[in-house]
Amino acid sequence: MHPATDALIVIDVQNDFCPGGALAVAGGDEAVGAINAAMSDFACVVLTQDWHPHDHASFAATQRAEPFSTAMMPYGAQTLWPTHCVQGSDGAAFHPGLRTKPAQMIIRKGFRPAIDSYSAFFENDRTTTTGLDGYLRARGIESVVLAGLATDFCVGFSALDAARLGYEVAVRLDACRAIDLDGSLEQMLDRMRSAGVRLVG
Fold first, then answer.
1. Annotated catalytic residue, options 12, 116, 133, 161
2. What was the pLDDT predicted at 201?
3. pLDDT tens, residue by residue, 89-99
């Protein structure tokens, strides 16, 4: 059992990110077993959930552009995604195999129409907070372990922000899966290592 100062943060294990979903991560459902097993080792478990309005600015359809192209937003370059994790849709629901009862907190992100949110801690402008940092500090959390989808986007950006905020950070690679868009996985692994994030499993 991890000490009470450790938290497990499970990132975006939702139907749309699993096989058959609108933005499926290859083998995304294969991470569920390892995540479920890990939950038993933590007194603090947090789930995050992508939660977009139907016309979110990061959707290629909203911008009348090709999926996976890039657009400039006020906060910088933004990958345009297939429409996914629309609020209240089956695609936005957690994967049915994921244990949700152990979670004490669910953080919904990406609900602001004009800005995307990869990180569990900040929107993509890097300044608008999700409230997760305040919750963890109120719980006395000093160290976080991250798992979920996808390694090279929402998991990776969450890990980088957690390190920037002063947490000790580990990523359970066996409990993650990646999109790997144009080499994004290796780039993110390098960034995490450089930030002092431990890559385990």
1. 12
2. 86
3. 999 999 999 99
Residue 38, amino acid: A
pLDDT at 156: 98
The C-alpha atoms of residue 163 and residue 160 are separated, in whole angstroms, by 5
12: annotated active-site residue: yes
pLDDT at 182: 87
| Annotation marks residue 101 as catalytic | no
Write down the catalytic residue from 6, 16, 50, 109: 109
- 61-104 residue pLDDT tens: 999 999 999 999 999 999 999 999 999 999 999 999 999 999 99
Tokens representing residue 117 in the block: 């949110």
- Catalytic residue chosen out of the listed positions 44, 85, 154, 176: 154
**125 is known as an active-site residue:** no
Q: How far from each other are the two terminal CA atoms of the chain, in whole angstroms?
A: 17
